[in-house]
Amino acid sequence: MAKLNLLSFFFFCIIFLCFFFHYSSQFELEEPWLDEEDEDDVNMVQSGRDIHSTKKCDFSVGKWVYDQSYPLYDSTCPYLSTAVTCQKNGRPDSDYEKWRWKPNSCSIPRFDALKFLGKLRRKRIILVGDSIMRNQWESLVCLVQGVVPTGRKRVTYKGPSMSFHAMDFEASIKFLWAPLLVELKKGPENKRVLHLDLIEENAKYWRGVDILVFDSAHWWTHFDTQSSWDYYMEGNSLYRNMNPMVAYQKGLTTWARWVDLNLNPQKTKVIFRSMSPRHNRENGWKCYNQKQPLQFFSHLHVPEPLVVLQTVLKRMRFPVYLQDITTMSAFRRDGHPSVYRKAMSQEERKQSKGLSSDCSHWCLPGVPDIWNEMLSALV
């Protein structure tokens, strides 16, 4: 009987311990994925081959919060293009500079220039893409340049690129013009040919880089008179017409194959930023005189280029980080230069109906600063 009681007690202890550890593990899983003070855990938000799996924190889902502590720099930053310095160009309102993006289930750490440059010490980061990627590059340079002494920073221009150098950190932040990623060349009769399966002329600049940030979407959606090419070419076949999204998928697949074959994930981090939304409807004036973010969408439409991008990334072996800024930026039709692309007199401004309205690029300081806060958390 004593032996039976001992066995029963032993069995009870095993059951109790199993229950205890099971309960403990459940409790740990219920803790917040990212405390607002814990900035170091955020760099794995979107990673690897499971890029489309459900994450506990999704930077792309949240809301814009008005924050008086923004912006983090002003439009006197010497590295800004005239076309994006909306305050200097006479824009009368400035609230568009003071909105911070707050994800639903975590927080994006406030941009810390010294910490970011510390991560970049003896490294190179290249932002590859179109004029909106240059928009983001100018934002990033302005975010960091204030902590670098005047004699210890410089910008150099070479061919299709421009680079900011922080000498004390031996770090460089470069923008490289390659809006289609694949090669656009002159063909017979001076025709422009987009080679969907050639990329090395652009990709040769990407080798040996520590961090690569890509975007490519807008130029692929141009058509007819706005198109930058006359023909598509794949192998030896020449095409006059092709579905733009089929062409986009072919071009992205060429990029993805090059990354898979040529880059080492132990040495290079690759981030692909999703397309920046445009607010160009109503003859390009949909963003004119807008002063607040949209509060909601009547319906949420996922742009086809984003679907194509997700499909291509999902098939890759290389762990590419998808930085999805499309929906969050779609709320911000107030953030574009609109008619404030250059300085004008009041008299010229009165004739604004004859002015072109830029509802594609972004005023700086502004929306791309938040993209770069996300970027800083990812690198």
TrEMBL record:
InterPro entries: TBL (IPR029962), TBL_C (IPR026057), TBL_N (IPR025846). It comes from the Eukaryota. GO terms for cellular component: Golgi apparatus; membrane. Keywords: Membrane, Signal, Signal-anchor, Transmembrane, Transmembrane helix. Its main location: membrane. It is a single-pass membrane protein. It holds the Pfam family PC-Esterase. It is found in: Membrane. Residues 1-26 form the signal peptide. Residues 55-107 form the Trichome birefringence-like N-terminal domain. GO terms for molecular function: O-acetyltransferase activity. Residues 108-377 form the Trichome birefringence-like C-terminal domain. The keyword rRNA processing does not apply. Belongs to the PC-esterase family. TBL subfamily. This is Trichome birefringence-like family.
